[in-house]
UniProtKB/TrEMBL annotation:
Residues 159-184 are annotated as: Disordered. Residues 178-272 form the MaoC-like domain. SUPFAM superfamilies: Thioesterase/thiol ester dehydrase-isomerase (SSF54637). Residues 166-178 have a biased composition (Basic and acidic residues). This is Acyl dehydratase. Pfam families: MaoC_dehydratas (PF01575). It comes from the Bacteria.
């Protein structure tokens, strides 16, 4: 495997130049045969959280006020670094063609919103599947040299081009997404401007989330909600059932959530945690399945 390409920033970089490079870039939608992944490690040495930005996130994701950070909030904070990953020479495909397939978040310790953090993003995995290619990248926040929050995002590029794989296999998660007795069910009213509102908070202005017209350019009949908004909204609905730290959250994204629409959020207790499902109003089709477990 080639040597790791390392890039360091004093703080979070600007998103604007990165978006220009994404729009004008010539990367393929799927990596050609023989592609060798170059590991990439990005660092923001000091990240300071904003109370105003945090409140905007709580508002758009319906997260009740609490002393601790919402479990998925730091993903939104890290978006400028994710964009730097996507435009890096070693990242092999165009980000606008990628689908967020799976996500794992580990909250190791309670995070003080007033304390500066160190942020790193690492990428080294291209995996061949029957339907296309998967790419994992890891986001970590540290406080005083200790990892306090970690995320593994799996992105998917559809296609059947044979490609050399780099990195180990990440097993799929197959667990129940069907509610049990004692299920907490909430109806989610998903507004037409949800994509715009979350984009302003996260910096993710992918056209499929903004308007029906721009979503149609990528084959969608309507704008679709960000997967990380759906994840954050379901965690907001389940907030009373979740401990503030010491947890792992595994999420599998299924059907897109169209804007506007309604959906059900269901939360029920299982051994060592809770399961969460976001489904259609009839309850017969899943938008996402989520498993929240206590870390050992």
């Amino acid at each position: 495997m080639p040597a790791t390409a390392k890039i360091s920033f004093a703080g979070l970089p600007s998103m604007v130049p990165a978006y220009v490079r994404v729009l004008l870039g010539k990367k393929p939608y799927i990596a050609p045969a023989g592609t060798t992944v170059t590991p990439i490690e990005l660092e923001a040495r000091t990240v300071k959280l904003s109370e105003r930005h945090l409140q905007q996130y709580r508002d758009v994701c319906g997260v009740p006020a609490a002393a601790h950070l919402p479990p998925a909030y730091l993903h939104a904070v890290a978006m400028p670094m994710h964009m730097q990953l996507f435009i890096a020479q070693g990242f092999p495909v165009k980000v606008l063609g990628l689908i967020h397939l799976r996500n794992t978040i580990r909250v190791f310790r309670a995070i003080d919103a007033k304390a500066p953090l160190r942020l790193t993003v690492h990428f080294d995995t291209l995996r061949l599947t029957d339907a296309g290619q998967e790419y994992d990248f890891t986001t970590r926040y540290e406080r005083d040299g200790q990892v306090v929050w970690e995320e593994i995002s799996t992105m998917f590029a559809r296609g059947n081009t044979p490609t050399k794989t780099e990195g180990g296999k990440r097993p799929s998660i197959e667990r129940s997404a069907h509610p049990q007795e004692g299920t907490d069910t909430q109806t989610l009213e998903i507004r037409e401007n949800t994509g715009w509102r979350y984009a302003r908070v996260s910096g993710d202005f992918n056209p499929i989330h903004l308007t029906a017209r721009t979503a149609a350019m990528f084959g969608f009949k309507q704008a679709v909600a960000h997967g990380m908004w759906s994840l954050g909204r379901c965690l907001g609905a389940a907030a009373v059932h979740l401990p503030p730290d010491g947890i792992q959250i595994d999420t599998q994204f299924k059907l897109p959530v169209y804007l506007p629409s309604q959906a059900l959020s269901r939360t029920w207790a299982v051994d060592n945690g809770v399961d969460i499902a976001m489904c259609t109003m009839r309850g017969d089709r899943l938008h996402l399945a989520m498993q929240v477990r206590k870390l050992k």
